[in-house]
Amino acid sequence: MKEEEDVLYVHVRYKVKPGMRNAFIEAIKKAKISSRTMEEPGNFGYEFLIPMENEDELFLVECWENEEVLVPHREKEHFKELQTIKAEYVLNTEIKRIN
Question: Which domains are assigned to the chain?
């Protein structure tokens, strides 16, 4: 893996429809979004995190080699599947990139 200062971190906060977080998580698991993404070239980590304080949130922490590897990532079938899943379960998505 590259030096930490060379990689791109993407932090995603999903605001899920009330009471739908577990169903959202199950849909993500069923589609194998994490494992399929981690197989991509340039991906160093892709992990969903469940906050204890808010039952209608889910976080995703991604680690990529650089911004350029995200271009083909957005064309992958599992990325498109995640967008479909989000349309069913998610109210709002906030994304922060950290270099």
Answer: 4-98 (3.30.70.100)
